[in-house]
Amino acid sequence: IDYEEKQRQRLLDMSREIAMSSPAPEAAAQDKANSIFEGAENVENITDDVFKIGNITFDISEKEFVWGKEFIVKPTPIANVTKPEKRIVVTGEIFGMERKDTRRGDKATVNFGLTDRMSSLWCKRLFKLDEADTFTSSLRNGDIVAMMGHAEIDRFDGELVFAPMAAYKIKEKK
Length: 174
Description:
This protein is of the alpha+beta class and 174 residues long. It has helices at 2-21, 25-31, 129-138, and strands at residues 44-45, 50-53, 56-67, 85-101, 107-115, 120-128, 144-153, 160-172. It is extended, with a radius of gyration of 22 Å.
């Protein structure tokens, strides 16, 4: 009994020590940043159709509609996408695209990153198989795009992701 009491006391002391040395959960959540440049990015308009975000200068004068419904390209810098928002437009270069069909075989998840070479955003969308085919055959790694969609918290990993609803291929101005 003495041994069990000592163990219990030791565990209590350790948990108190851990609790005192760690920040409160609310404080820890407030300190979390999605980007070291969070909220600091602006759209630098060069002309009506050319703008710079991050380290890419985008040209939307010859945008090519790819998928979804057409939309007005009025972008939000990726660094400024820090909380769930509806109907935002982001621009960037696609990287790390992968497609996974569901177990039932009736749908597919497409995951990819979007970067302006200063900040990045993970994108995730569940498609019907034919829509997934259209999406993945039209867009590839390295493509420069403008996408309209929703920033939302992923229900599986709790991270902020971008769910695209429409896309244009655009050009990078060198």
